[in-house]
Amino acid sequence: MSTLQNSPKTLFEKVWQQHIVAEPAGEPSIIYIDLHLVHEVTSPQAFDGLRMAGRKLRRPDRTVATVDHNVPTSSIEDRLHILDQIASKQIEALRKNCADFGVELFDVQSPDQGIVHIIGPELGLTKPGMTIVCGDSHTSTHGAFGALAFGIGTSEVEHVMATQTLPQDKPKTFRINVEGALSPGVTAKDIVLHIIGEIGTAGATGYVVEYAGSAIRTLSMEGRMTVCNMSIEAGARAGMIAADATTFAYLKGRRFSPADTAWDESVTHWSQLVTDAGAIFDRELTLNAADITPTVSWGTSPGMVTGVKSTVPMADPAASEADQKAFERALEYMGLHSGEPIEEIKIDRVFLGSCTNARIEDLRAAASVVRGYHVATTVRAMVVPGSQSVKAQAEKEGLDKIFTEAGFDWREPGCSMCLGMNPDILAPGERCASTSNRNFEGRQGRGGRTHLVSPQMAAAAAITGHFTDIRAWQFKDQIAQKEAK
Ligand SMILES: CC(C)[C@H](C(=O)O)[C@@H](O)C(=O)O
Ligand code: SF4
């Protein structure tokens, strides 16, 4: 027993062990849940279930709700009078449920409203070492803080509401090391798109992924959240990054962060939540940061990606018949053909938003590309800040002006065009450079064509009207000067 206790452990194992309530033989472990995040789409039946069973919500103080998926982003007026019947019903239900069960709700008029995975971290609700769940697959975002965070289904939402626990089979562990320095213009989004391109959309199924290595350590919290956010697109149960000085600096002083002596105690505890030297993972992979270039998805799954300087790929004759069919189908749906240079693909729309890339740093990066330019006449572009707080900060910095002067639409926070659940959708056949995380058929509206890119790449595409290598864009003034001589 003592050798087992002293043996080196992974970050995941430490957090898992600290949350085991019970380990019934032959059954999933019962895990304690520290924080339950709630949004309007996956909570109504769960609250109804509690009501029908005559049960209370066990820990309203560990439950927080917001509205994000369904809310229009056009104007405050539109958000207060939602025309869509389903959206309006779900939001009304959430209001009533939160009032009845004593849950704090960040509603459309709250200065803290926003996409659930953006507001958790920015309020300091998300903390290292926690277990965090939400009826939403991109809950993996919170793993950027060294938390064990994963999406759950509606029946599990009800279970957590009633008991503050969850039965869970212990996942396997997978460490992905990204080593070396990223080239200028290459971002966290490119890292994660590249990883999914390498391992495939089922490459991490059954695993909790820990991202490590020098390229990950140098990422900001925003960048780490982008990486962890898309873990689910590789099939992972969760993504995690050990907390460090960057994490502590981000959390210090946030509304729900510990203060005073509790802060110091927390940092001492959090600092221990790292993978011990010699700990063994079920799987390990090391990638070289220098191999990653600005990445663009060309198909209908987040694994169908390539570098911006590349071309739409050829069918792989060695692939299975099913894979070849899926490949052909993706090309047909996307209206592309093999060999087409990525930089020649023209776009109609640009969406800068979502829980992947709508944090302040994303908006700053995009604004720095856009400043002084105008959106191409053939393109409609929009910026949807991830939260009210991101929006307010961006406005304080004048980023909204940079975007609107360039011809972008500046919107109210929400999931928006990340998914077709609100009025922000593509028309059939429209092609969009999007900073979101999913490019499935119809994801942004029926017949819509989604290309996943970083905020910088989306911004450059908005200006030129086609995918453009951001690495060249960064030096555009120098190139122009040389040409003028
Ligand atoms: C609506 C919700 C259940 C869904 C999810 O779980 O991820 C959504 O957020 C998405 O991104 O597709
Ligand atoms: S922004 Fe998109 S991915 Fe994120 S929670 Fe909303 S719909 Fe899901």
From TrEMBL:
Entry keyword set: 4Fe-4S, Amino-acid biosynthesis, Branched-chain amino acid biosynthesis, Iron, Iron-sulfur, Leucine biosynthesis, Lyase, Metal-binding
Domain Aconitase/3-isopropylmalate dehydratase large subunit alpha/beta/alpha positions: 13-465
Cofactor(s), names only, from the UniProt record: [4Fe-4S] cluster
Pathway field: Amino-acid biosynthesis; L-leucine biosynthesis; L-leucine from 3-methyl-2-oxobutanoate: step 2/4
Presence of the UniProt keyword S-adenosyl-L-methionine in the record: no
Coiled coil start-end: none
Function: Catalyzes the isomerization between 2-isopropylmalate and 3-isopropylmalate, via the formation of 2-isopropylmaleate.
NCBIfam families: leuC, PRK05478.1, PRK12466.1
Family designation: Belongs to the aconitase/IPM isomerase family. LeuC type 1 subfamily.
HAMAP family: LeuC_type1 (MF_01026)
Name of protein: 3-isopropylmalate dehydratase large subunit
